Write the structure tokens for this entry.
Amino acid sequence: MTRSVHPALIALAVLVFIFLVGPLVIVVGAALSDTSYLTFPPQGLSLRWFENIFEIAAFRRTIVTSLQIAFISTGIALLIGIPAAYAMNRYRVQLPGWLSTLFVLPVLVPELVLGFSLLKSVAVQFTIPIYISLVIGHTLLVLPYVVRVISASLAGFDFSVEEAAVSLGSPPLKTFFTILLPNVRSGVIAAFILAFITSINDVSISIFMTGPGISTLPIQILAHTEQFFDPTVASVSVLLMVLTVAVMAIVERTLGLTFLAK
Amino acid sequence: MTQRLVLDHITAHYGSTRVLEDLSLDIAEGELVSLLGASGCGKTTTLRLIAGFLTPTAGTITLGGKDLTRLPAHKRDIGLVFQNYALFPHLSVADNVGFGLKQRGIAGEARAKRVNAMLERVGLAHLAERLPGALSGGQKQRVALARALVIEPPLLMFDEPLSNLDAKLRVDMRVEIRQLQRANGTTSVYVTHDQEEAFSISDRVAIMHQGRIMQLDTPEMLYQRPANAFVARFVGFENLIQMKVIAREGGNVTAEAAGGVRLSLSADRFGAIPDRFILASRADGLAVTDDPNADGIPATLGLRTYLGRAYQYQCETPAGHLLANGPLTRPFAPGTAARLVPVPEQCTILAPEDQNR
Ligand SMILES: Nc1ncnc2c1ncn2[C@@H]1O[C@H](COP(=O)(O)OP(=O)(O)O)[C@@H](O)[C@H]1O
Ligand SMILES: [Mg+2]
């Protein structure tokens, strides 16, 4: 079956595509340039700026830190967010106002404000280690996404299915893992990926939470560009993209096929 | 295998709202009892109490002499069939049916064999590998039935299992359910708001209203001898005439209704008649006659409808609006002055309404 599509619509689609892919092409191109300054189109082809990333200790450190923070905060957010979303949908729990605000807040309020208030109230007042406050900050940052995405996938779930399992002899906790989770698997995967990407790309929260000795990759990229104008930042950006895609693929594979199946 | 279920003076609340009030129920081994009543009267709540998803505020539940009241739901060993099927969406038909066996540690060959045998019985063996999403409503309900039956529970419960199916399938499925239940001899509780469905498949029916059982009896008794005005209306008694005894003379009683209507009733036919009572009947409990001296209620006939076995008349009487049947041999024109004579076999005497509130 063929349908006629308005030419303007096609033009618009092409335009959107260019806007989406264009920056990627430019960044990848710049990263591969043989020059010692950022340029596009690339002049000469070389992988030396990728090698350069690993020669700079600060990049080596912050890549590890960023991955750790992203995994830990995403993990904690899932551990809190899944039961929270479950309780809210299953028992129609009316959360006290301040708590429901917490789940919405970071999406509504400019992140900068949250980062700043976190820095002030938490880190300084209680002299919390930088690493811990980074984890806390990122967890709070990604928690709303987790709760929302899981809630959305629970919204259509018929909870009498759980009761059916219990009546057939499956204890409630086991039922949660064998019946409920497999049915919101795609929601869990989506929440994981969304949270992970949000965390690993975050600047606004991290910029307040990082301090002497500990930094995250996006912050290190910023710091680097202040001093150097070489293609390293471009190659780091490409690396960040590759890492993100790799994590997405792994999550899809493991969560998708084994962890939650049966 | 099959066991007696006893609910003893159960009261249940949702929060501070009382949903069931002093409800008692005694279901014999192998018996199928229906809970029948309008939406919101507490049928599902009763099932949830028995299943263990809700704890009563007072009273006890015993199955086969064993007290279930505080036992967690997953240890109760009760087969449940839900209105919306509640199949596991991510498991195949075979795995859905095998789920209960798996929980009981029955694995491999043994499980597969029982699952297959059960699927054969409900005619779904060819769909064993399908996911529930790819089944029709009737097939889903069969899977739900198979899943509950395969664990051979001492008690089966159905919550409006057919209400999502179309009319033809509903009739077929209820016969199928009854046959399976009979074959296994499993004690069963069946919830429905459909009177025909309840009456057609039950040994006994409990008619519920606002969290209480108004009458628990065989379909025949409910249909012919409702115990109170609520049940009478429920089973289609159109004429409920409030009456007061004004004279007793030997076996005969003279009673008066609103508008000064007087009837003489024989105690031989009606048994003991209290001072205040309701004379209740369907349309065929009042016979239309144009004999002005008949001992009946004076009436002006209104609209006449043809029922096949009789003519039915809308009647205006001093005692209110009544429905009565007249002979096929003599159709009366609207406006005819007539008398409505109670047919004792088709009438029943009930306590006045305020006494059974
Ligand atoms: N989870 C609940 N919370 C509060 N009230 C409820 C809940 N479930 C049912 N009810 C109320 O309890 C009463 C009985 O409900 P239910 O047993 O579901 O009725 P039925 O199954 O006969 O339609 C109704 O008035 C209903 O509004
Ligand atoms: Mg119900």
Summary: Chain B has two domains: 5-232, 236-355. The first strand of chain B starts at residue 5 and ends at 14. Chain B has a mean pLDDT of 92.
